[in-house]
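Hi support team,

I submitted a single chain yesterday and got back a structure, but I'm not sure I'm reading the token output correctly. Could someone confirm the output below corresponds to the sequence I sent? I've pasted both exactly as they appear in my results page.

Thanks,
R.
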Amino acid sequence: MKNLYIILVILFLFPVCSSAQANYKAGYIVTLKGDTLQGFIDYKEWDRSPNQIDFVKQIGQATSDVYTPKNTKAFAINGLEYFEQHEVAISQGAVDLAHLSTRIDTNTKTNTVFLKILNKGQYVNLYRHTDDIKTRFYILDIVTNRVEELIYHAYYTPNEDKIQYVKRFQFQLQYISQIHHIDNKQLGRRILNANYSEDEIKKIISIINGGDSKQYSTPKLFATRWFAGGGFGISSVNFRGHTPLANALTSSTITPKIDFGIDLISNKEIQKIVFRGDLVLSVNSHDLLTTSMGTQTGLVTNEVNFTQYNITLTPQVIYKFYNTANFRAFVGGGISVNFSTYNRYQLVSKYSGFPDRVTNNYPEFEKTWISFPIKIGVVMKSNFEFSFCYVPYTVITNDVDFSGAITSYQLGVNYFFGKK
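Hi R., thanks for writing in. Yes, this is the structure output for that exact sequence:
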């Protein structure tokens, strides 16, 4: 239990450690005066449009400069993300089912924000902005130099028990194509059938802009990575309740394990959160012994020697709280499904002056059981992972009179195939 408390304290401190983490990538800043500053930007997983960015001219600089939409015209992370600053009206009506109003919410607020560039061309620029409410798309007409939101509403009508959608953005796109004399029947049909999605709107804007259209698509950031490795583990078994093995002395040997699996990485440039599928083959050996003094039988000893062979499947989440090019530290956890088989074991009870009593397959262990591992570790030079895994007290018997539980500790080394 003491070890569990230590691990929980470490987990509690991880957010504090991670607050100082930076992931600088080459990029540039365009100031309000139009000056371009080359350097490095702290690249984060921007599920929401960023409100500020940290910029340094050189890696290792002691302090960073903070840039916001108030003092920045544009910024970019080379080859990944491009943003421009604009003052825009931002619609406030939700479109997710959990927060729909019962009428069209046309409220807006005006703010200066960073808009992500999706497409730039001879007639129209396309942008995206995301906050806690929803994702919106904006267009800038090159002729009028005015940025406006492509409007999309959703609301719920209780009387009809129906969700209504208002797709004003379709008429806005039709108008843009008409004023720029884009006579294309196929484009007209595409607009009328369009959903409010990035892929569909980007295709429409690309057709309107023609051959001069430039896409600012973020390259594919999702990646998979296979790994294989091995290590060693040590475990202990404890019995409680009405059983001859209650509070038995247990001796465990260090036993091997083989590990392989796959990582699913949402953003390979950051690798902050990784979803892992893990398959582990392991062996646990245990010698259990109890002694007591009977009133009639004298000294009594109960002994069980058993070996547990495991196949463990573990879906888990890995969170990297410290991330550099050559060193990453992480913590993880998940749910393990364990499939176990056992050798032919028996409980041997020895009484002074009496024959031994042998009970086959006692105690009876579960062949399938669930555990909740906690893991910490480091990845060095991208391809080698060293980890420590702790599996808390987990019951592996199914008996109304007693319980037997296993606690284990594992050290492992994995090798990743490929760079990401």
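A quick pointer for reading it: The CA atoms of residues 297 and 353 lie 8 Å apart. Let us know if anything else looks off.

Best,
Support desk
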